[in-house]
Design brief:
The longest helix is centred in the middle third of the chain and has 18 residues. The protein has two domains: 235 residues, P-loop containing nucleotide triphosphate hydrolases (Rossmann fold, 3-Layer(aba) Sandwich); 116 residues, Nucleic acid-binding proteins (OB fold (Dihydrolipoamide Acetyltransferase, E2P), Beta Barrel), CATH 2.40.50. The chain has 367 residues and is of the alpha+beta class. Helix content is 23%, strand content 32%. The two termini are 37 Å apart.
Length: 367
């Protein structure tokens, strides 16, 4: 069918009751408009209290919106009970039944839907094959590792072939190595089966790794929806620029806009260039944001537009060297350089530079 598989239209939700004469409490979700395409893995990313889990709970049917519509395949499901939505859910705790076997857990949604025993057994076997656990059907959850339990929960969410699978921080309890392995597993399953997935996380790296698109939320509002690359390279506001990946923040004043990069004066007096985010008038207070890997560090003669700095510290981080650089006014910039690159000794005077189109300038206070 044409159009998105899933659509949120003006969806709002507040948990706190208003008090007469008091300022209205902020909404957990405030007028969400969001489309999810069929076969897409879209991640809801944001800090605690941003509204991402509320969005998932509203879609699953565990909460009811105060306003707006939630359309699944064109049908408004906002006020349907969970069991009538046919949506698969994977929780962070996995929520497996400890008294049931793996096969019993995976087959439970089919049994609840009255699927005959023979067909149920075939579909359970197929689901366990998909998550690479065909030999563990008779084990109990307590006999499984964390990664195996996560796969069982995923199989249970997929076994009845739902139109959408929701995943609420499903990898949060796993160690780093297993989390990265399961990210690969989820991404592989998504691509192979063409599943539509809505994934909730506060982990930026996880979102960038897994997603077709990422929806960034903060304070109950949608800030930006884009592909991982576009979100990282083209943030629309200072919050997104600071939340998705690491960014240096340099207070500045806009001197003049220019096609080749606006000219801004940092608070320490140096002038730099950056791309303006939106229309900004000369004299406006801004914040210049540049990612650590985009900062070039040189001990040679400073190129035009370079900043003078002192190398305060160089830290080995495994796949890169993290440099902490002090500007004359006491401000700091972080740079990231490849392992093996020749670097000056700590305490050395260096020059810092970046291409104008690799830095963004946002109006101060607008985030």
């Amino acid at each position: 069918m044409d159009g998105p598989l899933l659509r949120f239209e003006g969806v709002s939700k507040s948990y706190a009751a208003p008090v007469r004469g008091a300022v209205a409490p902020p909404a957990a979700l405030d007028g969400l408009d969001l489309d999810v395409a069929r076969g897409e893995l879209l991640t809801l990313l944001g800090p605690s209290g941003s509204g991402k889990t509320t969005t998932l709970m509203l879609l699953a049917g565990f909460e009811t919106p105060d306003a707006g519509r939630i359309l699944l395949e064109g049908r408004d499901i906002a006020r349907l009970p969970p069991h009538r939505r046919g949506i698969g859910v994977v929780f962070q705790s996995y929520a497996l039944f400890p008294h049931m076997t793996v096969a019993g857990n995976v087959g439970f949604p089919l049994e609840a839907r009255g699927i005959p025993r023979a067909e149920r057994a075939q579909r359970v076997a197929r689901a366990l094959e998909m998550v690479r656990l065909p030999d563990l059907a008779d084990r109990r959850p307590a006999q499984l590792s964390g990664g195996q339990q996560q796969r069982v929960a995923l199989a249970r969410a997929m076994v009845f072939e739902p139109p959408v699978v929701l995943l609420d921080e499903p990898l949060g309890a796993l160690d780093k190595a297993l989390r990265e392995e399961m990210q690969h597993e989820i991404r592989t399953l998504h691509r192979r089966l063409g599943l539509t997935m809505l994934y909730v996380t506060h982990d930026q790296s996880e979102a960038l790794t897994l997603s077709d698109r990422i929806a960034v939320l903060a304070g109950g509002r949608l800030r930006q929806v884009a592909t991982p690359r576009a979100l990282y390279d083209e943030p629309e506001d200072a919050f997104v620029a600071g939340f998705v990946g690491e960014n240096n923040r340099l207070p500045a004043t806009l001197l003049r806009p220019a096609p080749e990069g606006a000219v801004l004066r940092l608070d320490g007096g140096a002038q730099v260039r950056a791309r303006l985010a939106g229309a900004v008038e000369p004299g406006t207070r801004c914040v210049v944001m540049v990612r650590p890997e985009r900062v070039a560090v040189s001990v040679a003669s400073a190129p035009a537009g370079a900043l003078s700095a002192r190398l305060a510290e160089a830290l080995f981080q495994g796949d890169h060297i993290r440099l902490r650089l002090a500007l004359p006014d006491g401000a700091e910039i972080v740079a990231r350089r490849p392992v093996g690159e020749a670097l000056p000794a700590p305490g050395s005077e260096v020059a810092l530079a970046w291409a104008p189109d690799e830095a963004r300038a946002f109006r101060e206070g607008v985030s």
